[in-house]
Design a protein that fits this description.
Layout (H helix, E strand, L loop, with lengths): L1 H16 L24 E6 L14 H10 L4 E4 L2 E4 L13 E8 L4 E3 L5 E3 L5 E2 L11 E2 L6 E11 L14 H12 L8 H4 L1 E6 L4 E6 L18 H4 L4 H4 L3 H4 L8 E7 L3 E6 L15 E6 L18 E2 L6 H6 L7 E16 L24 H9 L3 H8 L4 E3 L23 H11 L1 E2 L10 E2 L12 E6 L3 H15 L4 E6 L2 H4 L15 E7 L37 H11 L5 H18 L2 E14 L29
Parallel strand pairs: 1-14, 1-15, 20-21, 20-22
Antiparallel strand pairs: 2-3, 4-9, 5-6, 7-8, 9-11, 10-11, 12-13, 13-14, 15-23, 16-22, 16-23, 17-23, 18-19
Helix pairs in contact: 9-11, 14-15
């Protein structure tokens, strides 16, 4: 009995300590509820076509570069025309010692960079900058025997600490060296200008890269010599040629940017999600969880309204065409438009000197009369084209009239004096008469005819063939040009030809074989002024295998001007002489404007649409640079 009581006492103490014997409260405190997770914040960016690849060395299209901007942040971004490093500390500079120049001795046969920036072997006749020289005024032509020293440049790049690949592995200097080695491989389909100029590109430690040029390279644009890192730890077992076919490189590449590829559904979309290892993640960046790049075929919709209501939050200029933009007001569908003049130029190329002239010009035989040899005729044609009608009616205002092959904002146009060839049939008629073109038969329905001279036989009609691709818009533009020129007494016969045939190499190709009168063409001139495409030694001929000297025969106009060739050579060989480069660029632009081997018509406008679901932030309204700020894009509910 005593043992039983003892057991009961012990049990009572234990149970009381556990509060089992206390009565339960009448209203028990509920357990806290689990909050319902918020749906992910998604943004849809619509592209006009599917990227061909997301591999740095296998992608060139606008669509691909738009997606890649989300995967790779930088490594360098151009802000208001100035380079800004993203993943390394600073752009190397001679001033702060992160770049340095040292003279070294060179001998015949050594690899050097000539004054035009080309990688060559040093030999007699090569133009180079000797040590201490950065301008054409002190450049020399190597005589093959004299002792020579040339400057060799070294620059150091320091990668920021904490940059991590999207698989969690650290990004190192060796990843950039790995990229350089792939870029240098002959199977990698890129321009090797910068790799050829490079003597060494090495990792000094995990964060530091040292670049060394071949002797003779004169540059202060050191950002061009940092190679976009590639994940050596993941791709090291793949050869450069295998990377071109690898899904890991082309479809789901590792990056260090704000987003990473989650899924690529061919023909539909690329879904990207936040990169948890992004170096700004601790600041709550990116601002959205999911980024969908949706592929939109412009033939599948008729108006902007079909892109609204959440289907597209941002509409790329690759989606929009002039018809869609012209017939709809973006504001009516909840979009704001952002417009910027592009580098895409539409022009008329003139066949000044056909290939048939190369074996002596015979206007009384089989050769086409020399219609375009006189500059005034080319200028008259420019005055006869009604650009305003083309831009406002055919393009619905989505272009800007051009006075130069360069966009109007290009720095090389600053201070130039350029003729604006506005529509002026009276001025054109006066010019044509001064050249010898008259209405000899007094019939306004027939073309003007020439009164005859040593170059053009009497009675030659002012009749030309206009080559154009089979694009419907190009044909509408060609028809308007023909109508304008007909009003000036110039007969135009439109000749349509498939684009793949238009650009065939010479001698068979119509353009590069120099077998055309005039041609309506679209070019993307880029940011550089490639004056060499108008140099006489770039005229494709049988003697140079129809390849010119260095550009593949880009001067298929047959244009030549000795002063232009001199100025262009000085432009290309200017080194660091910015004053000379500015002066000769002005001269080059003015010569082209006066002599018109091509007649610039208009530059297209690149237009993006941004829906009212997106926060109205100045960070993203910067034209083509919108994708550089993709990590800052927010939904409007987060605007503050």
């Amino acid at each position: 009995m005593r043992n039983f009581l003892s057991i009961c006492i012990v049990l009572a103490v234990v149970l009381t300590g556990c509060q089992i014997l206390n009565p339960l409260p009448a209203n028990p405190t509920p357990l806290p509820s689990t909050p319902t997770p918020l749906p992910p914040k998604e943004i849809n960016i619509c592209l006009g076509y599917e990227p061909e690849s997301l591999y740095v060395y296998n992608a060139a299209s606008k669509a691909a570069k738009s997606v890649m901007a989300a995967i790779y942040d930088g490594p360098v971004e151009m802000i208001n025309g100035q380079p800004q490093p993203v993943i390394f500390e600073r752009i190397p500079s001679i001033t702060d010692g992160s770049a340095r120049v040292l003279p070294i001795g060179v001998n015949p046969g050594d690899p050097v960079v000539n004054t035009a920036g080309n990688f060559v072997k040093l030999q007699t006749g090569v133009s180079v900058f000797p040590a201490g020289c950065t301008s054409p005024t002190c450049a020399i032509v190597f005589d093959g025997v004299s002792p020579l020293q040339m400057d060799q440049t070294t620059a150091t790049f320091k990668i920021h600490s904490g940059i991590v690949w999207s698989d969690g592995q650290p990004l190192t200097a060796r990843d950039s060296v790995f990229s350089f080695e792939i870029a240098s491989d002959p199977t990698t389909p890129i321009n090797r200008k910068y790799t050829d100029q490079t003597a060494e590109y090495v990792a000094l430690d995990d964060d530091t890269i040292e670049w060394t040029s071949h002797p003779g390279l004169i540059t202060n644009e050191f950002w061009n010599y940092f190679w976009t890192p590639l994940p050596e730890h993941s791709w090291k077992d793949l050869s450069p040629s295998e990377l071109l076919e690898s899904d890991a490189a082309n479809r789901t590449p590792l990056g260090w940017g704000a987003f990473m590829v989650n899924e690529w559904i061919p023909g539909e979309r690329i879904e990207m999600v936040k990169n948890p290892y992004y170096f700004l993640a601790n600041q709550g960046i990116p601002k959205v969880d999911v980024l969908n790049f949706i592929f939109i075929n412009s033939q599948d919709f008729e108006n902007i309204g079909q892109l609204a209501n959440g289907r597209c939050d941002i509409v790329s200029d690759t989606v929009l065409d002039v018809k869609t933009l012209g017939e709809n007001k973006p504001e009516d569908f909840g979009f704001k438009s952002v417009t910027k003049e592009s580098t895409r130029l539409v022009l008329i190329a003139l066949g000044i000197k056909p290939a048939s002239y190369d074996d002596n010009y015979n206007p009384y035989g089989v050769d086409r009369p020399d219609i375009f040899g006189d500059i005034r005729t080319r200028q008259a044609i420019a005055y006869c084209i009604d650009r305003d009608t083309i831009i406002n009616q055919l393009l619905r205002g989505n272009a800007s009239a051009s006075t130069s092959i360069l966009p109007s904002s290009h720095p090389y146009l600053t201070g130039t004096t350029l003729t604006k060839y506005t529509f002026d049939p009276a001025a054109a008629a006066s010019m044509l008469e001064s050249v010898g073109w008259f209405d000899l038969d007094q019939n306004p329905d027939t073309p003007l005819a020439h009164i005859g001279n040593t170059q053009i036989p009497y009675g030659t009609p002012l009749s030309v063939s206009l080559l154009v691709s089979e694009s419907s818009l190009q044909n509408e533009i060609a028809a308007e040009i023909a109508s304008s020129l007909n009003g000036c007494g110039i007969e135009v016969v439109i000749e349509r030809i498939p684009a793949n045939e238009l650009y065939l190499p010479g001698p068979g190709g119509r353009l590069f074989g120099r077998n055309f009168d005039i041609a309506l063409l679209s070019w993307d001139t880029g940011d550089d002024f490639a004056c060499e495409m108008f140099m006489a030694n770039e005229i494709p001929t049988n003697a140079n295998d129809w390849l010119g000297k260095i550009t593949g025969g880009s001067n298929f106009f047959g244009y030549s001007n000795n002063q232009f060739d001199i100025d262009c050579a000085n432009f290309r060989n200017a080194g660091l002489d910015s004053g000379m480069k500015t002066n000769v660029s002005k001269s080059l632009v003015e010569i082209i404007n006066d002599e018109l081997p091509v007649i610039p018509l208009f530059h297209y406008l690149d237009t993006f649409l941004i829906s009212d679901r997106i926060c109205d932030s100045t960070e993203i309204y910067s034209g083509n640079e919108i994708y550089n700020s993709i990590e800052f894009i927010r939904l409007n509910m987060e605007c503050h």
